[in-house]
Design a protein that fits this description.
heterodimer, A: mainly alpha, 2 domains, B: five-stranded parallel sheet, 5 helices
Chain lengths: 243, 127
């Protein structure tokens, strides 16, 4: 919970400040009286005088502190409690684990997926290209070549199992981050409209101007049939898509 | 414009595997003269050096996208009539509309099959 002063608390503080001002005047008067009484001593100050002055001063400090301390202590306690709670929340966020391990690990998994799919695709395409370009005049040799290449294609397809497991790990990491960030936002009661307005980056500007959305999820983009209708038809066919 | 299997075709894609796939599909369709470029800039340079009968281009590439390439081709008097097919994963309506307005001859959304590619090429040359 953030420290927020309510109107009633503000009024209470004003009363305390008035009291402080009053106490201050009273104590200043006491110090003046003491000095007036002792000015005839012509610069000679005894230990008793010093003790008396200290007593007057400490009295004035006591009055001041007894007025101010409860309010300040209460507020400092609340702030300390908030700081402790925020430290706990930040600790629960496990930010170091995220940036030090989870996110770099997920990046490595994705790199490995790209590499594995590329290797498999190349192996499959090479096999297909060899079959396409093979000499068919010797049926036995051709059959042997096709069989060998087909086995190569099956072997290459095993990448799917490994990439599936890697993708699961990346999804798990994303879920971990999502859960902790969501919990952090909720516990700190950060309102949605508190998000800072970020300036459009060059990359975002390029994507907007050049209409770069990337692949769409199933059901989000237009189908090839819709595109065919748009390409073959006029504005009316395009308009239909917005109905 | 008649479909001529001897005409040079330019395939533009920043993903080598996709170039290889399209190249193989085109070979299966009977095309023999197939060239490629990794983005719009390289494609435009090649198009200024050689007259291609067909351009098959991806949309999302750097530094020059397929959309920018299409607009530049249409704006260039000597290249403006070149048949241009967009083959892309960009499947939002606004992309298709923008491409059509820019003068694309046909639009194929990825993933696609050989039959779709064949059909769209035939459609371009039957217009």
């Amino acid at each position: 919970m953030l420290v927020v002063f309510r109107p009633s608390e503000d009024a209470e503080r004003m009363e305390r400040l008035d009291l402080m001002a009053h106490m201050k005047q009273e104590n200043v008067a006491r110090v003046i009286d003491f000095l007036e009484e002792n000015k005839s001593k012509d610069g000679e100050v005894s230990l008793t005088d010093v003790m008396h002055l200290a007593e007057v001063m400490s009295g004035s400090m006591f009055d001041f502190l007894s007025t101010v301390q409860p309010a300040v202590t209460e507020e400092l306690t609340m702030i300390a409690r908030e700081i402790t709670r925020m430290k706990d929340e930040i600790s629960n966020l496990r930010a170091n684990d995220m940036t030090g391990h989870k996110i770099p690990d997920a990046g490595r998994e994705l790199d490995a997926i790209v590499e594995a799919t590329e290797d498999a695709t190349n192996t499959i395409m090479e096999a297909a290209e060899e079959i396409m370009g093979a000499d068919t005049s010797d049926p036995e040799a051709y059959q042997e070549l096709v069989s060998n290449k087909m086995i190569g294609i099956f072997e290459a397809c095993t990448f799917q199992d490994i990439t599936g497991q890697r993708i699961s790990k990346v999804v798990e990491t994303l879920r971990f981050i999502d859960e902790r960030v969501a919990s952090f936002i909720e516990r700190l009661r950060i309102p949605e409209d508190l998000d800072a307005v970020l300036e459009e980056s060059e990359k975002e500007k390029r994507a907007r101007e050049l209409i770069l959305h990337g692949p769409q999820m199933a059901g989000e983009g237009v189908s090839q049939d819709d595109i065919d209708a748009m390409m073959g038809g006029g504005q009316a066919d395009i308009d239909k898509l917005f109905d | 414009m008649a479909l001529d299997l001897q005409m040079p075709v330019l395939v533009v894609d920043d993903y080598k595997t996709m170039i290889r796939i399209i190249r193989n599909l085109l070979k299966q369709l009977g095309f023999e003269d197939i060239d490629d470029a990794a983005d719009g800039t390289e494609a435009l340079e090649k198009m200024k050096q050689r007259r291609y009968g067909l351009v098959i281009s991806d949309w999302n590439m750097e530094p020059m996208t397929g959309y920018e390439l299409l607009k530049q081709v249409r704006a260039d008097g000597s290249l403006s009539k070149t048949p241009f097919i967009m083959v892309t994963a960009e499947s939002k309506t606004e992309n298709v509309i923008a491409a059509k307005k820019a003068g694309v001859n046909n639009y194929i959304v990825k993933p696609f099959n050989a039959q779709t590619l064949k059909g769209k090429i035939e459609a371009v040359f039957s217009d």
